[in-house]
Every structure is written in structure tokens, then in C-alpha cells.
Amino acid sequence: MFGLRKFEPHFDLMHKMAATVDVSLEKVLDAGDSGAQRLRSAMMRCAFCDDVNGCQKFLEDNKDGAPEPMATCPNKGFLMGLKD
Q1: Which stretches within 1-84 are classed as H helix?
Q2: What is the pLDDT of residue 3?
Q3: What confidence tens digit (pLDDT) does each residue in 10-56 have?
Q4: How far apart are the C-alpha atoms of 38 and 52, rounded to whole Å?
Q5: Distance between CA atoms of 78 and 38, rounded to whole angstroms?
Q6: How many CB atoms within 10 Å of residue 67?
Q7: What would the mean pLDDT of 49-65 be, rounded to a whole number?
Q8: Can you tell me the distance from the alpha carbon of 65 to that of 71, in angstroms, rounded to the nearest whole number?
Q9: Please, are residues 50 and 57 in contact by the beta-carbon 8 Å criterion?
Q10: 59 vs 33: which has the higher pLDDT
Q11: pTM value?
């Protein structure tokens, strides 16, 4: 059975990536059920990403922020869509 432990590191990375590019994941929830579904889909994309090491390196290299997520981030479009 697929356990939630697989998701935990990805949830953390996704929140860090959002903070690094200065977006709020909570903002998407303002759209109600459709926003919640979009956030769940983004979390699933992150959970199945194979580039965890690349993501961690990007976050380490961009502690002071970045204008956009790394090029290979499966949620790049989603996160950029949340920018003000």
C-alpha cells in the first residue's frame, strides 16, 4: 500500500519552493473546492517528481529567493500562476 511517508519530504520541498519564489500556497485555497483540487494535483506532481536532489540543491542555492522555480520543477507553471 502506498503510504503517506512518500509525500512528507515532497510537501516540505513544495512549501519551500513556493516560499523561495515568493508565492503563497494558501492563496489557491481562496478559490474553494477548485483551488483545493489544484493544490492536491500540485502536491501529487511534486510527490512523483524524480528530481528531489536537484530541488534540494536549487533551494539551497537560492535561500534568498528566486524569480521562478527550477526549470525542471513539475509545478513551475502552477507556482508562476500564483505570482501577484
Answers
A1: 8-20, 25-29, 33-47, 52-61, 76-81
A2: 60
A3: 889 999 999 999 999 888 888 777 888 999 999 999 999 999 999 99
A4: 21
A5: 9
A6: 10
A7: 96
A8: 15
A9: no
A10: 59
A11: 0.86
Note whether 53 and 13 are within 8 A (CB): no
Give me the helix-helix angle, 33-47 and 8-20, nearest 10°.
110
C-alpha cell at 73: 520543477
Q: How much is the pLDDT for 10?
A: 81
Does the pLDDT at position 1 exceed 70? no
* Of 19, 27, 24, nearest in space to 66 by CA: 19
Rg (alpha carbons) of the chain, rounded to whole number: 12
User: Which triple of cell numbers denotes residue 30?
Assistant: 481562496
Contacts of 80 (CB under 8 A, 6+ apart): 21, 68, 69
Q: How many residues does the chain have?
A: 84
DSSP state of 73: -
Written as nine digits, the cell of 44 is: 501529487
